[in-house]
């Protein structure tokens, strides 16, 4: 075992604890500061009094955000997108990963399909041709534009395929002898055994869809169909005067653009915060999955 | 006649086919669509009826006044990200590994890993506030040390470094955990042997820990080099503004502006193709190297 008794070693330990704690605090500082601003009054935020704790505590910015039509509409679009996108992504991932996990001797076309999908990881048509295909296939302004073009997450397929390959072959063989076909084997035997890895992928897919903003921005002509992140981008980062609520805010006593934006940012982060403990828990498993290369 | 073996494989084909069709339409047809880089593309005419112009778009691209600086920015920003993204997580993994209080260690990991899951839109909103030269908390802090306010996001001199720093903030927690996982798999017997041989904490780190994680460090770096033309579109796009184009504009943001803002579809595709071809070669080389030196293969 390691030796901790010398003076230098103890000094290092103390330094290490202090240093790492400071860095972790530094990572949280921007988040805490903006969170505090979102709960502070207009004047306190403008005067720069708000550091780590709200000054003149008020919920007005949140109340204002939750009453704002555009914000709520965008929130709903995002929820819809996450739901639909999750189902489509996971179904396709499972249905592609399972056949690809077979040996070539069992599924003769396996390698052809595998390369067909891998090529898309190495080379892509790029932004503009993809945009044109989405346009030509009539997906513009439809929620499906946010789901279909990336319906097959190839990297997730590879992770799940590697997990399926790690399952003992005897279990599946026993099911075949008992008369199961591939469908039943997949649903009754393979999937129940793969729940931990399905859960890991699920979380990543959910967060990925929630965080998506670029496709909303380019595929949705009407801003009322934007998911939350595209909407937030336009009002906070692009400071789009058409969509911002400056006029209404000017009449509010406790809300400024700054506190209002801070509140919206945190409302958009709440779902991620909610699943974060699970993400954290499953992440290590995800790593192990990723490291088992077929 | 279909043989019994083929018939038995039929369900497997049926499972893959929907994914194949979607991939064909939304990934392979765009690859064909690349021919628009050699056309004067008009959306109403489509990929196959637009006028053929040969290499004119590439000629035009090379004559863009900012193309050199954009290529330089792309490589400069992503090289800095690779170097910092290599050193910081390794140092943190080593330091965290020296901590004995498991609970505290896990708490710290949880904290530094969190920004990884927020989008650049959310992080951008937060950064615009905290980095503001007039009212942001970062400049207030610097003011305590007598430093004049710095316009991190609006000053072309500072912008690339702001990108590297904020990117580190978002992603070093993730990389730290990857390295930490590698550290925990080092055989404890090696440490015991080193201790018996009289190695102290520092020597143990130098001769056992660092050699132990060297393969994964090499692997991550080699793979990152394959992505050198991806300087981080999501981040740059959400943080940049016209006053920092000179140092912050990268290939991907240029493609977006030429293509979707100015609607010069063919030129944008040409720039994109230029990038994809170089990236493709780099990814093949880096995967080859990763396979050779670390036994890595994704396929």
UniProtKB/TrEMBL annotation, chain A:
<feature type="transmembrane region" description="Helical">
    <location>
        <begin position="71"/>
        <end position="100"/>
    </location>
</feature>
<dbReference type="InterPro" id="IPR000515">
    <property type="entry name" value="MetI-like"/>
</dbReference>
<dbReference type="InterPro" id="IPR035906">
    <property type="entry name" value="MetI-like_sf"/>
</dbReference>
<comment type="similarity">
    <text>Belongs to the binding-protein-dependent transport system permease family.</text>
</comment>
<dbReference type="Pfam" id="PF00528">
    <property type="entry name" value="BPD_transp_1"/>
</dbReference>
<feature type="domain" description="ABC transmembrane type-1">
    <location>
        <begin position="75"/>
        <end position="279"/>
    </location>
</feature>
<keyword id="KW-0812">Transmembrane</keyword>
<keyword id="KW-0472">Membrane</keyword>
<keyword id="KW-0762">Sugar transport</keyword>
<feature type="transmembrane region" description="Helical">
    <location>
        <begin position="185"/>
        <end position="210"/>
    </location>
</feature>
<keyword id="KW-0813">Transport</keyword>
<keyword id="KW-1133">Transmembrane helix</keyword>
<dbReference type="GO" id="GO:0055085">
    <property type="term" value="P:transmembrane transport"/>
</dbReference>
<feature type="transmembrane region" description="Helical">
    <location>
        <begin position="262"/>
        <end position="279"/>
    </location>
</feature>
<feature type="transmembrane region" description="Helical">
    <location>
        <begin position="143"/>
        <end position="164"/>
    </location>
</feature>
<protein>
    <submittedName>
        <fullName>ABC-type sugar transport system, permease component</fullName>
    </submittedName>
</protein>
<keyword id="KW-1003">Cell membrane</keyword>
<dbReference type="GO" id="GO:0005886">
    <property type="term" value="C:plasma membrane"/>
</dbReference>
<feature type="transmembrane region" description="Helical">
    <location>
        <begin position="112"/>
        <end position="131"/>
    </location>
</feature>
Automatic annotation (TrEMBL), chain B:
<comment type="similarity">
    <text>Belongs to the binding-protein-dependent transport system permease family.</text>
</comment>
<dbReference type="GO" id="GO:0055085">
    <property type="term" value="P:transmembrane transport"/>
</dbReference>
<feature type="domain" description="ABC transmembrane type-1">
    <location>
        <begin position="71"/>
        <end position="286"/>
    </location>
</feature>
<feature type="transmembrane region" description="Helical">
    <location>
        <begin position="177"/>
        <end position="196"/>
    </location>
</feature>
<feature type="transmembrane region" description="Helical">
    <location>
        <begin position="108"/>
        <end position="128"/>
    </location>
</feature>
<keyword id="KW-0472">Membrane</keyword>
<dbReference type="InterPro" id="IPR050809">
    <property type="entry name" value="UgpAE/MalFG_permease"/>
</dbReference>
<feature type="transmembrane region" description="Helical">
    <location>
        <begin position="70"/>
        <end position="96"/>
    </location>
</feature>
<feature type="transmembrane region" description="Helical">
    <location>
        <begin position="12"/>
        <end position="38"/>
    </location>
</feature>
<dbReference type="GO" id="GO:0005886">
    <property type="term" value="C:plasma membrane"/>
</dbReference>
<dbReference type="InterPro" id="IPR035906">
    <property type="entry name" value="MetI-like_sf"/>
</dbReference>
<dbReference type="InterPro" id="IPR000515">
    <property type="entry name" value="MetI-like"/>
</dbReference>
<keyword id="KW-1003">Cell membrane</keyword>
<keyword id="KW-0813">Transport</keyword>
<keyword id="KW-1133">Transmembrane helix</keyword>
<keyword id="KW-0812">Transmembrane</keyword>
<feature type="transmembrane region" description="Helical">
    <location>
        <begin position="263"/>
        <end position="285"/>
    </location>
</feature>
<protein>
    <submittedName>
        <fullName>ABC-type polysaccharide transport system, permease component</fullName>
    </submittedName>
</protein>
<feature type="transmembrane region" description="Helical">
    <location>
        <begin position="208"/>
        <end position="229"/>
    </location>
</feature>
<dbReference type="Pfam" id="PF00528">
    <property type="entry name" value="BPD_transp_1"/>
</dbReference>
């Amino acid at each position: 075992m390691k030796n901790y008794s010398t003076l230098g070693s103890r000094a290092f330990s103390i330094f290490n604890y202090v240093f790492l704690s400071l860095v972790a605090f530094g990572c949280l500082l921007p988040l805490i500061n903006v969170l505090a601003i979102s709960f502070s009054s207009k004047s306190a935020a403008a005067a720069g009094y708000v550091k780590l704790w709200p000054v003149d505590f008020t919920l007005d910015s949140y109340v204002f955000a939750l009453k704002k039509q555009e914000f709520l509409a965008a929130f709903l679009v995002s929820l819809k997108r996450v739901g639909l996108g999750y189902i489509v992504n996971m179904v396709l991932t499972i249905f592609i990963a399972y056949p690809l996990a077979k040996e070539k001797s069992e599924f003769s076309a396996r390698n052809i399909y595998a390369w067909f999908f891998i090529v898309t990881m190495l080379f892509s048509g790029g932004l503009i041709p993809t945009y044109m295909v989405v346009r030509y296939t009539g997906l513009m302004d439809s929620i499906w534009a946010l789901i279909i073009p990336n319906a097959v997450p190839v990297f997730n397929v590879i992770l799940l395929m590697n997990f399926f390959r790690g399952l003992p072959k005897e279990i599946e063989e026993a099911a075949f002898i008992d008369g199961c076909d591939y469908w039943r084997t997949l649903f009754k035997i393979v999937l129940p055994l793969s729940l931990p890895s399905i859960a890991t992928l699920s979380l990543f897919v959910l967060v990925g869809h929630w965080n998506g903003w670029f496709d909303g921005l380019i595929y949705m002509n009407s801003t009322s169909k934007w998911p939350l992140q595209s909407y937030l981008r336009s009002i906070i980062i692009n400071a789009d005067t058409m969509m911002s609520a400056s006029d209404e805010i000017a009449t509010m006593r406790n809300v400024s653009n700054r506190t209002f934006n801070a509140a919206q940012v945190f409302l958009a982060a709440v779902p991620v915060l909610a699943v974060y403990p699970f993400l954290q828990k499953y992440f290590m498993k995800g790593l192990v999955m990723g490291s088992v290369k077929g | 006649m279909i043989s019994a073996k083929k018939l038995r494989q039929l369900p497997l084909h049926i499972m893959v086919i929907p994914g194949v069709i979607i991939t064909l339409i939304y990934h392979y047809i765009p690859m064909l669509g690349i021919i628009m880089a050699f056309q004067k593309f008009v959306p109403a005419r489509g990929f196959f009826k637009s006028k053929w112009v040969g290499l004119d778009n590439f000629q035009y691209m090379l004559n863009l006044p900012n193309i050199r600086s954009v290529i330089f920015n792309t490589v400069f920003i992503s090289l800095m990200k690779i170097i910092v993204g290599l050193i910081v997580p390794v140092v943190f993994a080593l330091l965290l590994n020296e901590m004995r209080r498991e609970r505290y260690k896990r708490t710290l990991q949880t904290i530094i890993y969190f920004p990884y899951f927020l989008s650049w839109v959310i992080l951008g909103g937060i950064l615009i506030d905290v980095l503001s030269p007039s009212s942001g908390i970062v400049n207030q802090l610097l003011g305590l040390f007598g430093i004049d306010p710095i316009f991190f996001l609006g000053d072309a001199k500072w912008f690339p470094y702001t990108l590297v720093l904020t990117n580190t903030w978002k992603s070093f927690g993730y990389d730290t955990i990857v390295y930490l996982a590698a550290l925990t798999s080092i055989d404890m017997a090696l440490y015991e042997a080193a201790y018996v041989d009289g190695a102290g904490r520092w020597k143990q780190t130098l001769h056992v820990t660092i050699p132990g994680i060297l393969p994964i460090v090499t692997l991550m770096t080699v793979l990152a080099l394959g992505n050198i033309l991806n300087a981080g579109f999501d981040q740059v796009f959400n943080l940049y503004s016209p006053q920092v184009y000179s140092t912050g504009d990268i290939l991907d943001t240029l493609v977006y502006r030429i293509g979707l803002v100015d609607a010069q579809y063919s030129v944008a595709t040409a720039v994109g193709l230029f990038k994809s071809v170089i990236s493709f070669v780099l990814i093949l080389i880096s995967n080859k190297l990763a396979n050779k030196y670390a036994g890595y293969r994704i396929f």
